[in-house]
Write a structure and sequence with these properties.
By secondary structure, the protein is α/β, with parallel strands linked by helices. It folds into 2 domains: 75 residues, His-Me finger endonuclease fold; 134 residues, 3-Layer(aba) Sandwich (Rossmann fold). The protein contains 10 helices and 6 strands, in the order ααβαβαβαβααβαβαα. The strands form 2 sheets. It has a 4-stranded parallel β-sheet, sandwiched between helices. The protein starts with 6 loop residues before the first helix and ends with a helix.
Length: 227
């Protein structure tokens, strides 16, 4: 596979043209989203479900992977990207569960490029440049201020994002459901037992000096959690 400097180079390349035509020959000239017949092959768009970027365009498992490409019509492609008058409804997800349950891993697997992610751990990293698990108490008011601003942006649907993911423990049932109602969010519980969380603390080298601290966070969550 040739090395491409830009996305434009890729979409003009022989590799992409041959790949796209092979998909059309295999799947036919029907839009995979709406089922409409597309009369001219030139009007069949190869849509990458994982969006291409300068960082991944040279990874053939993404750019030339049949499982990552749908053949769609112009209308469905514009709807997918919210272009030319199409406004996609904004979806919000509140992802909760105990510390080290895998909430961020779940969001990484589900999110799309350009989604809005609100996560206290990541906000600490952003304002402090410290490692993931080092969260100085003196920065809490600044971090929660940014967090609350982003939450307000989600409530008012400010911005051009299509999906927003709010990540947290949210052990308190009343507070969790109230926030979900205010955000119009779907609740997603990432389940893990206390023992599983303990095991992940032991396995994570970044926590080798903070094991007792994080076991305390886990214990506190399970003491407070109500379904």
């Amino acid at each position: 596979m040739a090395k491409f400097k830009t996305l434009q180079d890729f979409y003009k390349s022989k590799e992409w043209r041959i790949f796209r035509m092979s998909l059309i020959a295999e799947r036919g000239n029907k839009c995979q989203r709406c089922g409409k017949i597309i009369a001219r092959s030139i009007d069949i768009i190869g849509h990458h479900k994982i969006e291409l970027t300068p960082e991944n365009v040279n990874d053939a498992t993404i750019s030339l992977n049949p499982d990552n490409v749908d053949l769609v019509c112009f209308d469905c492609h514009n709807q997918e990207h919210g272009r030319f008058g199409y406004q996609k409804p904004k979806s919000v997800f509140l992802v909760y569960g105990p510390p080290l349950a895998g909430k961020k891993t779940f969001v990484r697997q589900q999110m799309k490029r350009g989604d809005l992610i609100v996560d206290m751990d990541r906000l600490y990293v952003a304002v402090s440049m410290l490692p993931d698990f080092d969260k100085p108490d003196n920065l809490f008011s600044n971090v929660i201020g940014v967090h609350n601003l982003l939450i307000d942006n989600i409530k008012t649907r400010m911005g051009k994002w299509a999906n927003a993911w709010v990540i947290g423990g949210y052990a308190d049932k009343f507070k969790r459901e109230r926030l979900a109602d205010e955000l119009g969010a779907e609740l997603i519980y990432i389940e893990a037992s206390r023992e599983e969380c303990y095991a992940r603390i032991e396995a994570d080298e970044r926590l080798q000096y903070r094991k007792a601290e994080w076991r305390g966070y886990v214990d506190k969550w399970f003491e407070q959690y109500r379904e």
